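Q: What residues go here?
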């Protein structure tokens, strides 16, 4: 869009409708043309929320922000990649897409595929998908296939299916996914005016950490930031192939979104670690849950357990953060995705079975 026209349309619109979705907002940075049908739910433009309670725990004047990507249309950052992957699949004339998923990819794939008039097939590990995510894929009209095997096995199967039949694979091996996801790094720099010193991020298949690094580099090359962050990736201890240096046969963690033993983007991830002078580290489920609860009750931010790994990791490495540094923790998914974990793991006082009586209520309140 010519600059003047875009300024005029922006000025004419009420402010709450300014955002056109990430493909339109970052069109010149993305592999799209006038021929690309843009399939969008106005994803992106998620808030960068200051986190004073966590910053206080880190200490020494460190500033902490949460990139709350759980506020995307289907509740996770997967929407950033999916708007690109589905738009490009549509452009190529595809009528169906397939993915393996721990849940969020299937929700995003289903929503965007249906929006684009395509069929969506989803392979999930039976019994290891959080309830909210399952509900979403079903409601969006995905065709679900649950297998007796973990994510890594499901991915191998969908890759074979996509090789043999006319169907587009939309897992993060699809290069357009990472192109869309890199826009989160653009938004962070657009918000801060500069790259942060550290980026803390949960790592499963390592697509997102790869995409962020791509975004930070592209913006720096274009002069939008003078610096690059150190990329700090966190895996769940029972599912930490990049920390252990080998595939994990039976990954296990409460953080189901990163329950991945054989990361697709392993080589990219190791490159990001080396180039950014970053590091991978494991956090235990107990540390993840601690951060998860602190985010809720200390910051008022509800994320899913996998997302809290970024904050658990920051707290674990707090002594290494330079004084006064700026840290961004990526919160990849919305807490409502996984209500059972919240109901099981919280420190709330929940008084039940009371008489419907004012005095009884006042009494448990401590009056
Ligand atoms: C997909 C996902 C991750 C992991 O991202 P990768 O790109 O696979 O490393 C982390 N958190 C949530 C909520 C996710 O949905």
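A:
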């Amino acid at each position: 869009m010519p600059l003047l026209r875009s300024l005029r349309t922006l000025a004419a619109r009420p402010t709450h409708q300014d955002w056109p979705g990430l493909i339109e907002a970052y069109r010149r940075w993305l592999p799209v043309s006038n021929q690309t049908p843009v399939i969008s739910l106005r994803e992106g433009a998620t808030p960068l929320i200051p986190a004073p309670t966590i910053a206080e725990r880190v200490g020494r004047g460190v500033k902490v922000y949460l990139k709350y990507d759980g506020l995307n249309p289907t509740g996770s950052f997967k929407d950033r990649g999916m708007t690109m992957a589905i738009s490009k699949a549509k452009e190529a004339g595809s009528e169906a897409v397939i993915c393996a998923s721990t849940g969020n990819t299937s929700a995003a794939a289903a929503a965007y595929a249906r929006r684009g008039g395509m069929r969506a097939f989803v392979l999930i590990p039976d019994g290891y998908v959080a309830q909210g995510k399952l509900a979403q894929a079903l409601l969006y009209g995905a065709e679900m296939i649950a297998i007796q095997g973990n994510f890594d096995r499901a991915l191998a199967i969908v890759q074979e299916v996509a090789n043999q039949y006319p169907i587009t694979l939309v897992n993060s091996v699809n290069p357009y996914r990472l192109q869309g996801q890199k826009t989160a790094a653009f938004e962070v720099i657009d918000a801060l005016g500069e790259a942060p010193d550290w980026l803390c991020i949960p790592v499963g298949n390592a697509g997102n950490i790869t995409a962020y690094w791509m975004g930070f580099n592209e913006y720096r090359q274009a002069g939008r930031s003078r610096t690059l962050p150190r990329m700090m990736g966190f895996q769940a201890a029972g599912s930490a192939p990049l920390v252990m240096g080998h595939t994990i046969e039976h990954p296990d963690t409460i953080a189901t979104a990163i329950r991945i033993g054989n990361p697709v983007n392993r080589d990219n991830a190791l490159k990001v670690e080396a180039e950014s002078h970053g590091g991978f580290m494991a956090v235990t489920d107990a540390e993840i849950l601690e951060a998860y609860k602190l985010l809720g009750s200390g910051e008022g931010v509800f994320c899913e357990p996998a997302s809290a790994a970024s904050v658990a990791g920051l707290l674990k490495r707090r002594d290494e953060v330079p004084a006064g540094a700026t840290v961004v923790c990526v919160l990849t998914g919305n807490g409502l995705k996984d209500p059972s974990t919240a109901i099981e793991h919280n420190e709330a006082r929940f008084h039940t079975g009371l008489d419907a009586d004012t005095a009884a209520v006042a009494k448990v309140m401590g009056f």
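A: Context that may help when evaluating the design: The first strand starts at residue 48 and ends at 50. The radius of gyration is 21 Å.
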